[in-house]
Write a structure and sequence with these properties.
302 residues, alpha+beta, 10-stranded mixed sheet
Amino acid sequence: MINNFNVLNEERELRLDILLSNRFKEHSRSYLQHLISDGQVLINGDKVKKREKCKVGDKIQITFLEKQQIDLSPKKIDIDILYEDDYLLIVNKPSGLVVHPGTKNLTDTFVNALVYHLNGTPQCGDENRPGIVHRLDKDTSGVMIAVKDPKCHKKLSAMFKEHKIEKHYLAICKGVPKQVGDIQTLIGRHTTKRNKMCVKSENGKLAHTHIEILSHSNTMSLILAKPTTGRTHQIRVHLKYLQSPVIGDVIYGDKKETCSRLMLHAHKIIFLHPITEQRINVIAPLPEEFRQKMPKSSMKNG
C-alpha cells in the first residue's frame, strides 16, 4: 500500500522517522525506520535517511510492506570471521552478499548468516537490521563490523558518526585519477537517475575522501581511498568525478565492460574497541579475482 502526503507546518523540522511515527501510530518506529532504510520512503522523490529533517510542503511517499516480508530467519551462509569477542565480530564480506534483508532479498543476507552464527538474533540495533552499525554495498567486498552487545552498538554507532573509525579501501579504476589527495565535494541524489548519486554544486551533503595512487599501468590504477564521511556510493562517485570510475561498476562506469565484479574492497579498519579500549586493526585479504586484475607494477606496502 502506498500513501502520499505533504508535510504540514506543525511537522516542520521533525526527523523523518519521528514524523512518520506521529502520523502512523499503528506501526512501530523500528518498522518505519526499516521502510526508510529500504528505500520505501521518498521525500520529493528522493531516498533519504531516518534523521532527515522535513520542510513544510515536502511531498512524502511511503510504501508499506507486509510485516512478514521482513521477518528474520537464520540461514547457514559461510562467513569469513577476521575477529570476534564477546561484544562484536568483524568479517570479510564477499562481493555479492547483501548486508540486510529488503524487498529484493529476504533471506540470503549477512544478517541471516549472523543470526545463524550467533544461534539467535543480536539484541541491539534496528530490529530489522540487528547488530548492524554500518554497511557495504552488495558488490563491495571486505571488512565489515557486526555487534552483539547493546552498549557496544551504541558506542560504536557514535564512533562512526563522529568519524573515529579509520577505513581503508582498495579500488582498481580506469586510467589515472585526474586528482589525488583530499577530495571534498557535495554528493546528492541524481536528478533523473534515482539509483545514482552524483557530485553537486549545491543541495548535496559534504563528502570527503583521501585518495592515493599505489600503482598503475597504461589502462588502470590501483588506488587507496580513505573516506572520512559515509555518503552513499561515496568512493565510486568520487572516482567517477575524477574521470576514473571503478572497474566493474555498472552504475558509474562502462556498462559494456566485462568484469567479474566491482573492483572495490574494504581492505582495513582501525579503531579503539568501545568496551575494552583495545586498538583494533583488522585487514581483509584481497580476493583472488581482485589480485588477478591489479596493475602489474609494484604496490606500496599498506
